[in-house]
Each structure stands twice: as structure tokens, then as C-alpha cells.
Amino acid sequence: MIARYAILFFFFVGAVALPLLLTLLCRWLLPKKWCYKVALAFTLIIWGAIGYGVFVGYEQLVVHQVEYASADLPEAFDGYRIVQFSDAHVGTMTGSRQQLLQRVVDSINAQKADMIVFTGDMQNIYPDELVPHIATLRQLKAKDGVYAVLGNHDYATYQNVHPVHKDKNCRKTIQALRDMHFDLLLNEHRIVRRDSDSIVIAGMENWGRAKRMPHKGDVKKTLAGLNCHSSPEAGKQVRTPFIVMLSHDPTAWREKILPESHVQLTLSGHTHGGQFQLFDWSPVALSYDEWGGMYSEGDRSLYVSTGLGALIPFRLNQPGEIVVITLRKN
Asked: Rounded CA gap, 125 and 155, in Å?
């Protein structure tokens, strides 16, 4: 499977194949006396960028503060704070990198949020990667709890084993997340109350546009039982509930969530922001219309977290991200 050899592939392309390609281009485009000097300069820049991304960039962490306003938000939840983190890929946080995960947990708890949400991809490939980190992630605390959904890596997508073992491993992943005291939402929702007011936290299973991604997400099942529409025939108006939807892959927002629901705010991850950004552009923009930050269609919005970790321990000008989202009554 590609995921099993991603690190080797990355270093081969970055450290060997790309410098060789640049050398050939320089020989073709430049005079002979300059070509090797220019190629060497580019090679040193590439090697330096890889080294920086692995040993410095991957260790960086930022906390972003954002606001989302909606007329549907109940008054009692004006100022409600949600901390989102995503794409931890703790299988890469081994050895000295374990301190990075502890720093993430401490930073999240320091926000003293009302709710914490995780939007998928806790593991790289296998559930055994989660075991050494359960105690650390169990330290996460918020007044209204910690909620989570599965990402494509949290299923058995990249495991080269018999389907029976894939099912068993998927159950082990689910149990590990619950052992972390996460309320794992599998096409379901919870009601969060403040006096007589309430909001909905919903979690849809993974749905991605790409064929190789798990397609388990079901919007209607996730929101089943909610009064999402007015009912004038009953002689009264039913207030539209305010819903925060967790959905790992942001492509589900346009493909499923927007057309099949009235969900006001969707929180996603998955893209890692390409793990590389140059002048506000990332190569992941070639594959995803929404790949990092806040996007809106009318009064409905999507926030895509660029995540914390990665299968490949490399981030360049795209540090790990914790997001603090403050809800406002519009």
C-alpha cells in the first residue's frame, strides 16, 4: 500500500529525484559553465527545506482564534467556545516527538473551552499506534465534553490484511478513542443544553469524493430525529436548531452536507494544508477547493483545519494548528 511506503517515497522524490530533474533542466536551459552551479544551489535549497520541515516545521504549533456568527444560535450560546484539533497521526509522534502531543494537550486545555472536538485521523495505519498515547489524550477536558469522528486513516483503509482482520482493527480503533474518553459520533448527534436553550453537535462518518476513501457518511442518519424545518400546519413555528457538524473530509460539505441539510457550521480536516505553503498557496489547492481556513456559502460555513501531525513528519510554513472557534449570535 502507498501509505506504508509514503515516508520513503517522500524522501526519495525530495532528496534524489527532484534534484536530478533540476540538474537535467539546468543542463538543457543554461550554459554549461552555469548549469551545475545552479543545480547545486537548488539541490542545497531543497535539502535544507526538507531538513527544516522535518526537524523544525513539524514541531511548530499555533493557536488560531476565529469567530462564527449565526442568527440561528440561541442567546445562551453567544460566546460559546469550541476547540478543534484534527489529523493528529499519533503513530508518527514516537520517541522524542511524544512531547509534541503533550504540548498539544496542554495548549488545548489552556483554552478552557466549553467543548473540544477532534475531526479525524488519529492513527496512521494500525490501531496499536494509539495505545501509547491513550493516557495523554485522556487528559483533555472541557465542560461539555470531547467529541470526535473517524478519518479515512482511522478505518482499515491502508491495512494490507484480510477483511476479517480489518473489521477487528477498526473496532480496536473505535475502542481506543473511547478509552481516551472521546464521545465518538458515528453518524449520530448529541444535544448540548444551556438552561432552556440547546445546540446540536453532530458527527458524520467519513465521506470523500475520491473513490479510495471510505464512503460511510450519511447526513440524514446523522441528523435523524431533529426538527429541522418549520411546521405551519401544526399552528406554530419550530425554531431551526443550530448544528455543528463534524466531518473529516471537506469535500463532503459541498457534495453532501450543503444539499442534504441546513447545518450552519461544519468542521473538517484531512488536507493537512498540503503540509507546505508558499505565499498563501499550497499544492493541495490543486485537489481541494476548501483546504484550509473558513469558507462560506450564504450564512453557512465550513472551517478546514490544517491539522497537527502527518504520516510523513514534514511541515514547511504550515505549522500544526489548534483552532478556537467562538460562536456569536448574529
From this structure: 8
Dmax (CA) of the chain? 86
- Closest listed residue to residue 264, CA positions, set 102, 87, 70: 70
For the record, the C-alpha cell of 4 comes out as 506504508
What is the DSSP secondary structure assignment for residue 281, as one 8-state letter?
Answer: B
The string of pLDDT tens digits covering residues 93-124 is 999 899 999 999 999 999 999 999 999 999 99
Quote the CA–CA distance of 24 and 199 in Å, as a whole number. 59
pLDDT tens digits, one per residue of 183-192:
999 999 999 9
Q: How many CA atoms lie within 13 A of 31 on its CB side?
A: 2
In angstroms, the CA 161 to CA 154 distance is: 15
Cβ contacts of 134-140, under 8 Å, gap ≥ 24: 134/176, 134/179, 134/180, 136/98, 136/101, 136/102, 136/105, 137/90, 137/101, 137/105, 137/180, 137/182, 138/179, 138/180, 138/181, 139/105, 139/109, 140/105, 140/108, 140/109, 140/116, 140/180, 140/181
Alpha-carbon span 231 to 236, nearest angstrom:
6
Cβ neighbours of residue 316 under 8 Å, at least 6 residues apart?
A: 49, 52, 53, 57, 275, 276, 277
For residue 217, which of 134, 150, 271, 269 has the smallest C-alpha distance? 150
Amino acid sitting at position 183:
D
Taking only the tens place, the pLDDT of each residue in 143-155 is: 999 999 999 999 9
- Say if strands 146-148 and 183-184 run parallel, antiparallel, or are unpaired: parallel
pLDDT of residue 228: 62
pTM, to two decimals:
0.91
Which residues, 6 or more positions from 166, have their beta carbon under 8 angstroms from its beta carbon? 156, 159
Predicted confidence (pLDDT) at residue 3 exceeds the cutoff of 70: no
Cβ neighbour number for residue 171 with a 10 Å cutoff: 12
Is the CB of residue 93 less than 8 Å from the CB of residue 309? yes
| C-alpha cell, 311 | 504520516
Work out the burial of residue 243: count CB atoms within 10 Å of its CB; fewer than 13 is exposed, 13-18 middle, 19 or more buried.
buried
